[in-house]
Amino acid sequence: MTSLHVPEDHPRKVSLDVREKIIDGHRKQVVAIAGLLAHGRGEAFDYLIGEETNSQAKAACRAAVAAMLTAKHPMISVNGNACALVPKELVALSELTGAPLEINLFYYRKEREAAILSVLTDAGAKEVYGTMERPSEIIPELSSNRRKVDSEGIAKADIVLVPLEDGDRTEALKAIGKKVITIDLNPISRTAVHSDITIVDNIVRALPLMVKCAHEMKGMQSDRLLSIASSFDNKKNLSKAIRLMMKHLETKAREELQ
Ligand code: ATP
Ligand code: MG
User: Does ligand 1 lie within 6 Å of residue 25's CB atom?
Assistant: First the structure.
């Protein structure tokens, strides 16, 4: 089956192209059926923020990169949707911040893990944690397959970037003392609320921005980076993100009246 070709002048081209990546990912076994539904939830929230990166999301990206650059053992947790949408950027961010990639799946199947590993390897990843040959251990707070984490990876991490993550897992990572960074378009999801830094933006825009930030911030003094990371207040961040959505909706409502 071939991908749908979206014409250049289609008004929703960007969104449809992204959707095709998810569908392709599903065909390649990278994306689970539940991942298709999760993507739809993301699309709905993206409409609400106007499908662009706002200043609040930019500040969250900077804080996230600063936290990763100053961590002792940062990790990036990769699921099917993240892998289908931004494989190259995940590899680039991993290299720039020294945070290895670890595959961690809600709906685990060996074939899915192998498919994700192959996409990441094609995107340039040299080493990927959490694969079947690697030593693993258990996060006690979780009952599903995701409680298995790589002994050298997330198990040891002080900071984990978990984009597009489920609330249960975020809470479990917090309960075992990890600092959690997420990318989640829904500012009231459990993941968004329980994370230390939440980037309320589409991963297709946030990841390239994080890579850009990492390039710019890599040479900064560590005390400057620490101050950027520690002065970030996620409660205020989420509140501003919600207000920006409301403002966007109010503008749309006014436009309808004209
Ligand atoms: P929670 O379990 O955190 O309360 P949930 O059950 O709605 O939330 P999950 O499927 O567990 O959601 O996690 C997926 C999250 O990722 C959703 O909040 C969804 O809005 C978000 N999401 C989906 N696609 C994207 C995307 N492309 N960029 C950013 N966020 C996205
Ligand atoms: Mg959930």
Answer: no
